[in-house]
Amino acid sequence: MTKNNKQASFITSRKHARVLPAPAMALLATLGMPAAQAAPDNAIDQNIPTVQVTGANTKAGPVSANDKFTAPLLDTPKSVTVVTADTIAQTGAVSLTDALRTVPGITIGAAEGGNPVGDNMFIRGYNAQTDTYIDGIRDAGSQSREIFNLEQVEVVKGPNSAYGGRSSAGGGVNLVSKSAQGYDFNNASVGIGSDKYRRITGDVNRALGNNSAFRLNAMAHENDVPGRKVVGGNRWGVAPTVTFGLKGPDRAIVSLYHLTSHEIPDTGIPFNNPVTTGADVSKNGNGTPFAVDRETFYGLANRDFRDTKSDVGTIDLRHEFSPTLALRNVTRYGKSNNDYVWTQPDDSKGNTVRYGTVWRRANTRATETRTFANVTSLNGELTAAGLKHSFNTGVEFDRETTERSSYIFTPGTNNPLTNTFTCPTSGAATLYNCTTLVNPNPYDPWVYTRTLSGALTHVSTKTRAAYAFDTIEINPQWLLNLGLRWDDFQSTLDTLPTATTVAAHAVVDTDFVSTQAGLVFKPTKNGSIYLSFASSATPPGNDGGDGLDALTAVIQNLQPQRSRNLELGTKWDLLPGGRLSVTGALFKSTMNNARVTAPDGTTQNVGRKEIQGVELGFSGKLTSAWTVFGGYTYLDAEIADNGFIASGSSFVPSPFNGNRFPTTPKNSASLWTSYAFTRDFTAGFGMSAMSKVYANVNNNKWVPGYARFDAMASYTLNKDISLQLNLQNLADKLYFDKVSSPHYAGVAPGRSATLTANFRF
């Protein structure tokens, strides 16, 4: 088998001791990031579990970094969950998907042929794969994001188009980056654990004079996935930032971010593929994944790999005309690569039911996405006609280009005995393209030549937008929140022809208006009750050519899918100092023009989806030593009109009308709580749970519900050193945490333990 040097070195490292790149190890030799940021001598010691210092200028309740929110979160008529750095650190999260496990109402989707390996979130039942933002600007391209440079994660629930432009109806995730501070600190952490877990992070800050500062965050990480054979990898990242003008009125923040990863991705376990006719019907199971050993891996260690790279550069400029009026301009350039060969345990021909075999379908991708964005905004406060206005208005320009191809193999990946992907037998005679359902060998001697396909797809997407938000204080008890955004969206797709494929061309050119409106009543200063409306727009080609919502000639002339959400909610900051925040909301979301097959067999905007639900949340401290974070979400999600399906020479109404959304649990809940028993010793406990989840609109493939439990203990040795032990999945629960493909379900990690030493020096 011929491979490029990068892949060859990666496979060698998987079979022997994995070694991180020399630049990463050299960079991290003296650096690290602690569980909480260090501070100068006169600041709050964040290793001590306190919530407030008398006389300190603190804000009650969670705080958002999104300047498009023109009121505190307490008075923002929308469901927003803030996962703080403390929660991320205490739970032992090392990736974005780890951090989002603490937020109910979010599920993680599985990769598929058209859906890439990477972060694939579903929020309130809708695919939010493209709805990730870094500091308020869309982060395009399929990626698996790290947390080493994050201050917090903000999850906006419900339609997000007024804030972020084109998006799903479910919401969006905003990642808040760390920035330079005006004082010196050095923090480091070193972690070891089960399943070859090793992690080192660093956070160094230096004041440059009395008005500027430099900060460097860095990370190196590697581990296998607990309970999963073969699966694992390594990554490293670095993120320097410089801030000029800490004391204003003019400020400039220049930052860079780099992340590189190498891994063997997981294959999951196939669903029983129901056969609807013939004698095989009697062999059907109940629609859940096959009951094989949790370590079962259907891929090929000598073929499968995933290499990713992400580079982002940002210049953030700000000028304060006065304490209540500021102009901001942000320019960002980013490039991401997602390159992989990944085995999907395909069951589309019933191999698993009929023969007890699995076709090793090779899903491949070689993608590069480049983005350039510029945002100019004006935010401030003013009084007009006797009313106080807090506003933010701006314009955005964005361009995304994606080059996507795939790999081809010589000889092919079908079964040579059948010249198809049916597998009556397995083993060497099938060139190991077919394996057994039980006890497959990931080290089968698979020998092929891999080349890049000439069928290159180029997608260019341009967006122009203007927006305005205003919170109007009618009186101290009544606030009116208004938001309006106009987007002009253009996207072009071109695919080069090859000897076996034809050229493809598609163009979408559309514009749409998104709205956000809410009326807030404040019965007391520390509470609010609101009624809000929001809309979202999902145009054809929403994913910029890097996901399931790709542009094609079939959908290029369709209208954006429009969703509307009506929400009645309440938010309260309770206990002295507002140290405990509690929220609740009732909501109903409707998409009346979903893209489905029409009665004439064409794709049209004639479908309908409906979700109604309840959401509860809480975060903060019950006492000065007892912290809590979590919530509960109930989702009644119905595919009200799924269009039509072919029946002979005509089309009949879909038999799946009235079924539940895939990847949408009816009930989900999470809890993280910690208690400081002494000044030096803290213990924590976590739970995340959800009910059954369907993998398809047919509702005949599903994974059962589960409850997972975690624990943490930390001990402060002295003012410079602390230790933290995390135990994940205490009961070693076998459950499935990635569900959206009708072929397989992703297996969640088993029980693991990690010990981290945090240093301040």
UniProtKB/TrEMBL annotation:
Signal peptide region: 1-38
Entry annotated with the keyword Nucleus: no
Chain location of the short sequence motif TonB C-terminal box per the record: 744-761
InterPro entries linked: Beta-barrel_TonB, Beta-barrel_TonB_sf, Plug_dom, Plug_dom_sf, TonB-dep_rcpt-like, TonB_rcpt_CS, TonB_sidphr_rcpt
Keywords: Cell outer membrane, Ion transport, Iron, Iron transport, Membrane, Receptor, Signal, TonB box, Transmembrane, Transmembrane beta strand, Transport
NCBIfam families recorded: TonB-siderophor (TIGR01783)
Protein name per UniProt: TonB-dependent receptor
Native source organism of the sequence: Massilia aerilata
Taxonomic lineage from the root: Bacteria, Pseudomonadati, Pseudomonadota, Betaproteobacteria, Burkholderiales
